[in-house]
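---------- Forwarded message ----------

FYI, see the IFT121/TULP4 N-terminal domain-containing protein record below. Original note from H. follows.
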Amino acid sequence: MSRNYEPGHSVGMLAAVEHGPILCSDSNILCLSWKGRVPKSEKDKPVCRRRYYEEGWLATGNGRGVVGVTFTSSHCRRDRSTPQRINFNLRGHNSEVVLVRWNEPFQKLATCDMEGGIFVWIQYEGRWSVELVNDRGAQVSDFTWSHDGTQALIAYRDGFVLVGSVSGQRHWSSEINLESQISCGIWTPDDQQVLFGTADGQVIVMDCHGRMLAHVLLHESDGIVSMSWNCPDFLVEDSTESDTDSDDNILPLVRRVKPLLTVTFLSGDISLMNNYDDLSPLLIHSGLKDVEAQWCSQGDLLAVAGMERLGDSACSPPLSRNALLKFYNVQGEHIYTLETPAQRPITTLCWGHRDSRLFLACGAALYVVRVEHRVASLQLLCQQGIASALREEKDVGKLNMPSLLCSYVTSAFIPTIKPPIPDPNNIRDFVSYPTAGNERLHCTMKRAEDSPEAGGPCYTLYLEYLGGLVPILKGRRISKLRPEFIIMDPKVDGKTEEVCVNPMISYADSCNCSDSSDIELSDEWVGKKSPKISRGHRMNLESRKSPKMSRSNQEGQRSPRLPMKKPVPRSPSLTRREFSMDGMSEHNYLAQVTSNIWGTKFKIVGLASFLPANLGA
């Protein structure tokens, strides 16, 4: 399902929500971070930002304690090759993941959960594993890498701050005595000082060795939510870029004399300062609440997302409004406004692909905004207008246009988030045919509670996607002696099985089973097996325990590293229907898996009329 949201009017830029189905996880997305990817063919060459930022990885942290690492691309061409694996679900946290931070120079990923657990992940030979673990038992307010990637700054809400190396060695730590809580912490652009913002409007300045330098009150009655500089997060050396490296979305480099310190307050106001002691800062009154703000990497455009503040009108009924995305320049001037599809506050946002993409998370939904930093051409405006009117890519072929123009309109529907997501109206084809590329789809299998009416244990196969799980197939064991199964046809009587109640929200985990496999089924363990074995064995091990054992008792045995995971309240809109077993007959079967008595040889037999009898052994 796609939505039509008209872009705002502005001179000098254009922003529009990407067309296509709305991307969702099975739980609320709480944090985002993006980094560029260097293709293997380019690793021996000097790094060029233009090639480096065409592809990348988006890290997401969600309410189930799972970190998603998903491949993204901005070149809008389907013929470009993708990595063999384009999505990773990293499991290990026992509470909500509230922070994800890429370290581009060292290609590492830091993640923090609600209970203070910090993991540093590293990828080796296609598998992600935990390199470092830090659990102080206190809630983390911010985690920031230095601009050269060699140091990490950790700020805790209770006033404890720590600076360590990228390898895990502690450099120094300090306890700041405050009547308020630390809300954020950042490095200065030269990495010689660290700044901390507090919930009562103060800024604390320390040098890189932990010595206190200054204590400044910016606002008496307004707390600081976040701080940032309008400069790149990391120092990446560029090679000499020739004209042959150019593409259609090259951004002019912005030359700045001095970076701006940006302070976002709880009221929605944003202060632009030359330094923390600036006596005459520029003040932006955004008119928004629940504000999230971030500079693009070029430092010329500030994206501010939030809900519009309405006047106090007790007599008028509340109006349903969408979240707004506003853009400001370095002078604090408002230059553009985009109404987003989100009807709730934006949880987090981040720039990507050399500022040509902006990722927004709202609840479980993820939106991609395409940003044009220059005056939009008439051709681009026509493309966006036609795509908004069509809504679906398959309708482009119905237009009476030259093939070249049809291809240009089709590029508006090519998604930035690359993992294939099944169409709810075409799940049968998704599970019956291989993917267009050479990528592998990694899945998780879970066992539902035994039901006497079902005739045997039932299992659901889930596709891993954006840190969540998407149900795609359901099967039932038909033999108590041999490991034999019947796989249900997801399309019954010409209609696709309902797997989603609200089209705004994607497929959620609807079976009544423990998700404790999030801990035991690590990607490192799966990576040691062949793809066939890994898919066959990635099932919920906890479900084999006695059904009399309560869910809370099962979750208490999940991980010895962190305390028991607290149950995460699920939003009412995330309720989804499970594949129905009622009414299933022999005509609704897709395939059958048979084996010998020892379970060492397997054969897949097609039962549907459109499938061959022998599907492999």
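H. also flagged this: Residues 427-616 form one domain.
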